[in-house]
Amino acid sequence: MAVLPPRSPARRVLPRAALVLLLPALLLPGPPAPAGAAPAPPAATAPAGWAWPLLPRPRVVGAWAPPAERWLRGHRGVDLAAGPGAVVRSPADGTVSWSGVVVDRPVLTVAHGAGLRSSFEPVESSLRPGDRVRRGQAVGTLRGRDHCDPGTCLHWGVRRDRDYLNPLLFVGALEPSVLLPVPADLAGRRRAEAPDGVRGLSGAGGRAGGA
């Protein structure tokens, strides 16, 4: 008696008409998000939760003024008003990557991850490279007038890899630009000096705009 081979399981085959109806449904986007759902926020330019390295909040006495090119001179950080011996604190969690003297002043650098580093000078510290620090932890003391002579200040710089960033961005201290009204006498002089074809544009509505 001949032995028949076992039958393979039957495959389900959709009719061609069913595929034609199904493909558009597969290609269409999913259902819209509920009305109350907020869209995902864009990537932040700076991490949140950083703190000022001095308490109480210090006054900025030296603005961030980076050079146009890496090799040119510039102010790659901000100067914060402080007296000699002021306690310097870590603005965020991190690890000490440098503690020592650079040229003639003590410098402390803390790595915060993601390529970010804070540098402080002139700051004396007992910490050593590899020491872990927490946000707000005292990391050193200001050592006199090495940077803002004849006054005293703390120089705070922030760098992401090789690029210097404005430290004020990390503590939410950058204020938006505001266009101020042009004084009436200056606006009048501008209208008088403007070419005939544009005189009416600067004083529309009796008010001139300024750059």
TrEMBL record:
Ranges of residues in domain M23ase beta-sheet core: 74-167
Keywords: Signal
Stretch list, region Disordered: 191-211
Entry keyword Signal: yes
Signal peptide limits: 1-37
Biased composition (Gly residues): 200-211
Chain segments annotated as coiled-coil in the UniProt record: none
The protein, known as: M23ase beta-sheet core domain-containing protein
Organism of origin: Kocuria flava
Keyword NADP assigned: no
InterPro entries per the UniProt record, alphabetical: Cell_wall_metabolism_enzyme, Dup_hybrid_motif, M23ase_b-sheet_dom
